[in-house]
Design brief:
By secondary structure, this protein is an alpha+beta fold. It has nine helices and six strands; from the N terminus they run αααααββααβββααβ. A hairpin with a 3-residue loop joins β3 (193-197) and β4. 39% of the residues are buried.
């Protein structure tokens, strides 16, 4: 008899809300201290400078507040775990919208305004509220989980591009790691490979013989930040293996063809 379908992962809505606002606050505090030289550096993301990336992070919060200010959608179409696969086709549209919304305003002002708007809208709206989004309508609770991915990924981008040490909120890092791990299991369903990302996630994926007891024959293990970089295309599979940031054992434990999940 085939195994039962695994239940979707659930997240504590209150903790996710706190994680999102906390991580945004960490970035806001760091951005206030950026020098003109740091702001002019390449972000490593296409032609964006660090200033462009920092403005985009402000837009992440501001656009969520704007979405909550619009009339709600009727029915959620997109679960959080499928969000990573819906983002690539909208990258250009999102970038253009961010530039139009934020161009010209000083960064500290952008962050202050976005934080205030977001706090007010989160206070007014329950997690069951359905947002009308370009990628597909989502509940606020699910969409906030995806905001941990955006904020953690771009915090890491800013740290590397500008030489910063912005802290990563533990709950935000955990949710980001788990969502991307679960997305891998959706992309490559199966039970022949176990992917371990301690201390936050373990998932089984890739079609083939299913492991039932003892040590699995195909195991991939890495740390959360390396996993996030792999899943978002910031680091390549071969590079991570060569630098020993990923260990992979077993003939099926090669995820190169499945990564990145989003870019």
């Amino acid at each position: 008899m085939p195994p039962g379908k695994k239940k979707p992962r659930t997240y504590d809505p209150a903790r996710i809300r706190t994680a999102v606002t906390t991580q945004f606050g960490h970035v806001a505090a760091a951005v206030r201290g950026l020098t003109p030289e740091q702001l002019a550096r390449s972000s490593g993301l296409g032609d964006w400078t660090v200033a462009d990336l920092a403005a985009h992070v402000a837009w992440i919060a501001d656009s969520l507040a704007a979405g909550l200010a619009r009339p709600p959608a009727a029915v959620a179409e997109l679960p959080a775990v499928e969000w990573p696969f819906a983002t690539a086709s909208l990258a250009g549209k999102i970038s253009e919208a961010a530039r139009e919304t934020l161009d010209g305003a000083p960064l500290p002002e952008l962050y202050e305004t976005a934080a205030a708007r977001l706090a007010a809208q989160l206070e007014r709206n329950a997690g069951s509220r359905v947002l009308d989004l370009w990628i597909g309508d989502m509940t606020l609770a699910d969409f906030l989980v995806t905001r941990t991915v955006e904020l953690v990924v771009h915090t890491d981008d800013l740290n590397r591009a500008a030489g910063l040490d912005i802290p990563l909120d533990r709950q935000a890092l955990a949710a980001c790691t788990r969502l991307l791990a679960d997305a891998l299991a959706v992309k490559a369903p199966g039970g022949s490979v176990e992917v371990r990302i301690p201390p936050f996630a373990v998932v089984q994926c890739v079609a083939g013989p299913r492991h039932t007891r003892g040590t699995p024959p195909n195991v991939v293990e890495t740390d959360p930040l390396t996993w996030i970089r792999l899943a978002t295309g910031r680091t390549g599979w071969a590079e991570a293996l060569d630098s020993a940031r990923v260990s992979a054992s077993g003939e099926r434990a090669d995820l190169a063809a499945l990564l990145p999940l989003m870019s």
